[in-house]
Amino acid sequence: MDTRAFKRSLHDSGNYHRKGFGHSEDVNQKLQGEYQSSLIQQIRDRGYTWQEGDVTIRLAEAFGFCWGVERAVALAYETRQHFPTERIWITNEIIHNPSVNQQLRQMQVEFIPVINGIKDFSEVQSGDVVILPAFGASVQEMQLLNDRRCTIVDTTCPWVSKVWHSVEKHKKVEFTSIIHGKYNHEETIATSSFAGTYLIVLNLEQAQYVCDYILQGGDRQDFLAKFANAHSDGFDPDVDLERIGVANQTTMLKGETEQIGKLFERTLIRKYGPDQINAHFQSFNTICDATQERQDAMFELVDEALDLMVVIGGYNSSNTTHLQEIAIERGIPSYHIDGADRIGPGNQVEHKPLNQSLIVTEDWLPPGPLTLGITSGASTPDKVVADVLEKIFALKASPLPV
Ligand code: SF4
User: N or C end of the chain, less CB within 10 A?
Assistant: First the structure.
């Protein structure tokens, strides 16, 4: 499919919007009230440090709502204001944050139901308004909504669109896109729909496996089983790994994406020689600035003497999970929570250890003075961070045995 031509015709149709509707002043006021926090602003103003009783907070110098998320949420609010009576849908969570998604539900924005793992668009009618979230939607979904004559409000972050352009460039020159990402993440599902031949690798270990296959060959069936659900239809590792372009989910660990790119480049140089590398390898840097800044700030924070780290963000938020990985690598006890409700009753916390299900840990806040590192993912409002801090302050100030 010529995805570029489809996007051009969609953008030219009268039913497609990706800019606001002129209600930004009203909407900004609402967003301030719902998502900002004066406590967090004060902590920023005081050099990202705060002391209250026994607790010293060290806040990462880049955290929370990124530009792309703010833009997507504002556009969704503007959509509600602009279409007060129309039925409004969203194809997925707008961002990976439960409180923001709940707020949209309260504004009668409906989420496309998912039945047995498959989205059910049967209720969506001509004339309905459909919002595409910050991490985009697949080209097939856009096509379906366009065919059904829906009004589409596209909040896809421009950084995500940049990755789509990269894989379209690979497709144009018949290169296979190696996408560093999670095959079942909405953004990567959307990105792969714009690619031609593609393979999704989760991490450096999977990339190494592919590179070993490129150099030494291997069992084709084992390869396909290892990457089940993570490649384009008809993908053949014996044919489709000769010319490669690297792309990524915007929220992966930046260092890992770079290592993966270099690994493929070195591998193809070994196989085809340095003078042939441009005929076999392409790479564009598509890690977004916000992800990079939050990861860099986290690397600085974990260099400090912290007793423990609280990472706040949706459990399905890829960039939040990567922030937690950084704390774990440094051996700092870390708790990933998605909001203040996970704390308590008493000195307990319900949290999600990396790659595990939720667990409850008792006596998580030690007694006496405590230095706490705090960060939050790109889809977490300041207000959620403030609520977590208030709860921790109250807990440490209470007569509970903490
Ligand atoms: S994390 Fe990056 S790609 Fe994702 S919405 Fe924010 S700015 Fe856009």
Answer: N
CA distance 45 to 114: 43
So what's the pLDDT on residue 400?
57
Quote the CA–CA distance of 152 and 146 in Å, as a whole number: 8
Residues 105 and 82: their CA atoms lie apart, in Å, by 17
* Burial grade of 298 (CB within 10 A; 0-12, 13-18, 19 or more): buried
- CATH number of the domain at 121, please: 3.40.50.11270
> Cα of 212 to ligand 1 centre, how many Å?
32
- Exposure string of 216-237, with b = 16+ CB inside 10 Å and e = fewer, is eebeeeebeebbeebbbeebeb
Write out the residue range of the structural domain in which residue 272 sits.
159-286
- Find the DSSP H helices in 199-253: 204-216, 220-226
pLDDT for 245:
96
Number of domain units in the chain? 3
Q: What is the mean pLDDT of residues 367-389?
A: 95
Q: Does residue 4 lie within any of the structural domains?
A: no
Q: How many Cα atoms sit within 13 Å of 110 on the Cβ side?
A: 16
Ligand-binding annotation for 177, yes or no, is no
Catalytic positions: 187
Q: Is the peptide bond before 367 cis (omega within 30 degrees of 0)?
A: no
Calculate helix-pair angle for 67-82, 158-172, nearest 10 degrees: 110
Average pLDDT value over all residues in the chain: 94
Domain end: 157, 188, 212, which one? 157
Q: Residue 354's closest CA among 385, 388, 327?
A: 327
Instruction: Write the residue with the smallest CA distance to atom 8 of ligand 1.
Output: 68
Structure tokens given for 72: 């997507």
